[in-house]
């Protein structure tokens, strides 16, 4: 006992050694409190916040929240034990309290950040609107939490009221707005994009000026991430969706129909009035006779002469347009309740354009392309039945055939004379 009393008297007599011993005691107490929390806070958090889950099922949210909560206990323990150590030097006591206060608000901001992240993940999994994202709002909340924590830390370090710190920020408001102008613009843009539902997760976005065409996979505060169809990733500033032109194809998917609007070009010299020979050739196709009869007000095409067709302006292109419209309406992959038009366009050096305008009953890309290809393949094949020709620029094979035809027309004697 005398030996212990001597050590205690020595420590109390040595100020530096006494302060060192007290600091070590505080560190050990904080570590012990931290270890205890690691084992018991998880069960407490699960019982209070996640009691609906089975206890034997480990939950990631339990661990994440308990880790953040366990950081508070050592700080609170150290701060509480300081009340029983009045013999510490004043400057050391203030320093330890300041550190505890700073750590408390740092851990508090981390805790609320983790809670906001869990809310975001839970909303993404359980929300009925699977394509709606609140990530932008969550990031705004994180920024506010960090700003408030920074203000409290500054107040603790300067030993001033937080109200004074906040009021002093008005003097540097212009500087802060200049520094955070992109954040403020992104904040406004994110609120408008999210509140008006003009952009959602899974939407097909196309921005031709930036060479972007793909699916929206993430909507954050500052950027929107798009996975292009070539599996590359593009990140566009959120504010660009308020200032730049883009196309959202989601309305097309919602309508259940996808538009076909494609033209083919005819050789204008192949367009002429219908005659009896042409009628016999066209009548081999099912449906042409009905279209001719409708165009001729119920007359029999076999009885009417060639002059009647010319006087009434009935051309092979007219019959073909009406036949193609009827043929498209018979297809199961074409919507009948939407526009279905086959029209002649303005003539050009490429020929006379004929546009097919209709809607497919499937919005799936592969099925849409198959339907579109099948339609135009049939058009190219059936044009000859109507004595129409597709226009295309002369190719090398065309010049070769022309030279062969001239050589045959000249004969062997003329070739030898040359």
From TrEMBL:
GO terms for cellular component: plasma membrane. The keyword Manganese does not apply. Keywords: Membrane, Transmembrane, Transmembrane helix. Its main location: membrane. One of its GO terms (molecular function) is mechanosensitive monoatomic ion channel activity. InterPro entries: LSM_dom_sf (IPR010920), MscS_beta-dom_sf (IPR023408), MscS_channel_2nd (IPR006685), YbdG (IPR030192). Residues 184-250 form the Mechanosensitive ion channel MscS domain. One of its GO terms (biological process) is cellular response to osmotic stress. The chain crosses the membrane at residues 20-41, 69-86, 92-116, 137-157, 163-180. It is found in: Membrane. This is Mechanosensitive ion channel MscS domain-containing protein. It comes from Candidatus Pantoea soli.
């Amino acid at each position: 006992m005398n030996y212990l009393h001597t050590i205690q008297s020595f420590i109390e007599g040595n100020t530096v050694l006494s302060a060192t011993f007290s600091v070590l005691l505080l560190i050990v107490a904080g570590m012990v409190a931290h270890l205890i929390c690691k084992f018991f806070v998880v069960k407490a958090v699960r019982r209070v916040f996640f009691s609906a889950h089975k206890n034997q099922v480990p939950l990631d949210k339990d661990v994440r929240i308990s880790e953040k909560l366990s950081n508070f206990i050592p700080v609170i323990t150290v701060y509480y034990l300081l009340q029983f150590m009045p013999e510490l030097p004043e400057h050391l006591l203030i320093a330890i309290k300041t550190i505890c206060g700073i750590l408390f608000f740092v851990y508090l901001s981390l805790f609320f950040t983790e809670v906001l992240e869990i809310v975001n993940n839970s909303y993404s999994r359980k929300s009925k609107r699977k394509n709606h994202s609140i990530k932008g709002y969550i990031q705004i909340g994180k920024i506010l939490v960090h700003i408030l924590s920074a203000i409290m830390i500054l107040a603790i370090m300067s030993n001033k009221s937080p109200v004074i710190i906040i009021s002093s920020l008005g003097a540097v408001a212009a500087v802060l707005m200049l520094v955070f102008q992109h954040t403020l613009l992104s904040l406004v843009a994110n609120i408008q994009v999210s509140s008006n539902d003009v952009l959602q997760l899974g939407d097909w976005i196309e921005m031709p000026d930036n060479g972007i065409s793909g699916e929206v996979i993430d909507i954050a505060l500052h950027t929107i991430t798009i996975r292009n169809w070539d599996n590359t990733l593009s990140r566009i500033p959120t504010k660009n969706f308020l200032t730049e032109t883009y196309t959202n194809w989601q309305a097309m998917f919602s309508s259940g129909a996808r538009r076909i609007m494609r033209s083919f070009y005819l050789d204008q010299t192949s367009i002429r009035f219908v005659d009896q020979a042409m009628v016999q050739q066209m009548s081999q196709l099912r449906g042409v006779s009905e279209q001719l009869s409708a165009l001729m007000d119920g007359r029999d095409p076999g009885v009417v002469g060639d002059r009647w067709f010319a006087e009434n302006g009935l051309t092979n292109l007219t019959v073909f347009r009406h036949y193609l419209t009827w043929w498209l309406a018979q297809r199961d992959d074409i919507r009948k309740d939407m526009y279905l038009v086959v029209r002649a366009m303005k003539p050009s050096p490429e020929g006379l354009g004929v546009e097919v305008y209709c809607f497919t009953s499937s919005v799936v890309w592969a099925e849409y392309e198959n339907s579109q290809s099948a339609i135009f393949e049939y058009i190219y094949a059936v044009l000859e039945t109507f004595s129409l020709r597709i226009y295309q620029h002369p190719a090398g094979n065309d010049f070769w055939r022309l030279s062969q035809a001239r050589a045959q027309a000249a004969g062997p004697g003329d070739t030898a004379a040359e």
